[in-house]
Amino acid sequence: MKTRRIIRLVLALIFLVSACLLLAWAFWPFGDVSHVLPIPPENLQLPTPGSVIPVLLLVI
Amino acid sequence: MKRALLLVSGFVILMVSLSCFCGTMSDPGLSGGAGGEETSAPTLAVLDTPTAAIIVPGPQPTEQPQPTSVPTPQPAIQEARTLVLEWPPVIRAGDSDIIRLTLEVDELGNITPTAEIEGHAVTGETVYIPDLYDTHNIVAMARLDLAGMQVSPAEITSQALLPGQRVTFYWSIHPEEVGEYRGVVWFFLRFVPLDGGPESERAIAAQDIQIQVVSFLGLKAGPARILGVVGGFISTVFGMPFLEDGVKWTWKRIRQGK
Q1: Is the pLDDT of residue B145 over 90?
Q2: Which residues of chain A lie closer than 8 angstroms to B206, CB-CB?
Q3: In Å, what is the CA distance from A46 to each residue of B70, B102, B113?
Q4: Is B171 at the interface with chain A, CB within 8 A?
Q5: B244 — phi, psi (to 5°)?
Q6: Average pLDDT for residues B31-38, to the nearest whole number?
């Protein structure tokens, strides 16, 4: 009788720990990453061919 | 002696006239005669008589200061803006999450356009830049490229950009398989002239994102939640007698304490 009680207690604890682990993992909030990128004022202008050529020259 | 001097001077005059004649023939600017183009280089005037050649220097660019000309600035958006990208670095397999891209107005970044011309006195002067909102409809467009994952919306999305207002784009992602996924969030601005002119487009930013999709011992998010609830129920059933004993023992201790 006592052995059956111990087995039952162990099983209950195993199921409880497993259930807690599964639920904790399934609902754990991982959080977000935020990246802030300032836009340079020259990018808020109309694109012109003249604005591209100096960049190309710098690359060459 | 006088004859020798006369001979030498005559020879010199002859050589000068010959060199002037050759110069006239070889100068392409002057070979066209009246049809030649005007040049700003020093002009060379040749007289018909072989004994006279007058060199008239043209205006030297270094002697007279050129009038200062400020280039006409391009129309621009008169706001400082920032792009804020938020994404989940880790997602459970089978779960869904949101990626958000916001084009915010930077409250602290007041734009004061200034002109600086090298070598001249104009420095740090405020320049009037035409507002782009007055001449164009501006459309903000964004797209998320993320291979191997279900992304909604998958195509490019666009919203009107209004002065002083933020624009936010949302994507819903739904990974099914475990792994590491890389993607790019593109942001464009499209300028549509109000006068019906040709539209133009500008790529503003392309930001890399990296998302890791994980599982728990091979279990996805949905099955893990179901198993967690079922396991909790089973553990309660198994532990009910011990729970009853525990409650009785606690109640006895409380009564003894009183």
Answers
A1: yes
A2: none
A3: 19, 21, 16
A4: no
A5: -65, -45
A6: 35
How large a percentage of chain B has pLDDT more than 70? 62
Of A33-42, B140-149, B151-160, B226-235, which range is least confident? A33-42
- Say yes or no: B142 contacts chain A, CB-CB below 8 A: no
Evaluate whether B140 touches B162 at the Cβ level (below 8 Å): no
The residues, any chain, with a CB within 8 Å of residue B179's CB and separated by 6 or more, are B148, B212, B213
Select the residue of A15, A38, A43 nearest B235 (Cβ to Cβ): A15
Residue B213: how many other CB atoms lie within 10 Å = 21
The residues with which B181 forms a beta bridge, in sequence order, are B211
Cα B127 to Cα B129: distance, rounded to the nearest angstrom: 6
Residues in A closer than 8 angstroms to B167, CB to CB, are none
B22 part of contact set with chain A, CB < 8 Å: no
The DSSP symbol for B234 reads H
Which neighbouring-strand residues pair with B213? B91, B179
- Residue contact B239–A19, C-beta within 8 A: no
Q: What are the structure tokens assigned to B111, written together?
A: 């734009």
Eight-state DSSP code of residue B97? E
Tokens of residue B48, six digits: 């018909």
The pTM of this model reads 0.63
Mean pLDDT value across residues B213-236: 93
Does residue B28 surpass a pLDDT of 60?
no
Q: What value of ipTM does the predicted structure carry? A: 0.73
C-alpha distances in Å from residue B1, one per residue of B4, B8, B12, B13, B14 = 5, 11, 17, 18, 20
Q: Does B221 touch chain A (CB under 8 A)?
A: yes
**Which stretches of chain A sit within 8 Å of chain B by CB?**
5, 8-9, 11-16, 18-23, 25-27, 30-39, 41, 43-48
Residues of chain A in contact with residue B244, where contact means CB-CB under 8 angstroms, are none
| pLDDT recorded at residue B109 | 52
- How far, in Å, CA of A41 to CA of A20, rounded? 52
